Amino acid sequence: MLQQVLFGGFAVGSIYGLVALGFAVVFKATDVFNFAQGMFVVCGAYFAVTAMSVLGLPSPLGVLFLIGAAALMGVVIHALLIQPLSGRPMLSVIMLTIALSIVMRALIEITYGSAGRPLSTPLPTGVFVLGNLRVSQLHLTAIVVSWVCMAGFGAFFRFTPVGLLMRATADGHEAAVVSGINVNVMNRLAWAIASVLAPG
Fold it and tell me: Cα separation of 63 and 48, whole Å?
């Protein structure tokens, strides 16, 4: 029983790890506590519903649609809402993200209704047994995908030129500007990455 609970907790924790990574990317890059990150997760789910259930896209195109829509959402939110508050007190930005979360929830309920929407995916849903442990293939897939994504973004921030520019911007905006780094582009990229990480 304990092994079953630990496995389920590890699977869910791996998914939340992606959400936390998105939260950390935004905070480190822009010094913003994004209290709307939870609604980014919900929006990602409804992007998937739109792609696969409403538009009827095949799974590969549905994933591309989800990634593109989530990234665009992050860029638009930063450009229209976050960047104009640059230099304002932290409380103003915090209140904005809380209000954004409320507005996003209302828009989802207006667009899709308050009832849940079914979503069928090609992901495996079977179960196999290892001793006394029943391993859900869906949970196992979530664990593998989550850790691969986290490792991939870790390598991105450490080894790629864009990742290094984002780290430089996060270490000091003023120094980044003096060095010729376009801080606004790096910040929008951070919000795009956080939006993509939210739906996992």
Answer: 7
Q: Give the DSSP letter of residue 85.
A: G
The tens-digit pLDDT sequence of the chain (200 residues) is 677 778 778 888 888 888 888 888 888 777 788 888 888 988 888 888 888 888 888 888 888 998 999 999 999 999 998 888 877 788 888 899 999 999 999 998 888 887 777 777 766 677 777 777 777 777 788 888 888 888 888 888 888 888 888 888 877 777 777 888 888 888 899 899 888 887 65
AA identity, residue 61: L
The span from the CA of 42 to the CA of 57, in Å, is 20
* Continuous H helices in 31-89: 37-49, 59-77
Give me the amino acid identity at 31.
D
Distance separating alpha carbons of residues 169 and 184, to the nearest angstrom? 10
Pairwise CA distance, residues 61 & 92, whole Å: 38
Task: Tell the burial category of 179 from Cβ atoms under 10 Å away from its Cβ (0-12, 13-18, 19+).
Answer: exposed
* Three-state secondary structure call for residue 100: helix
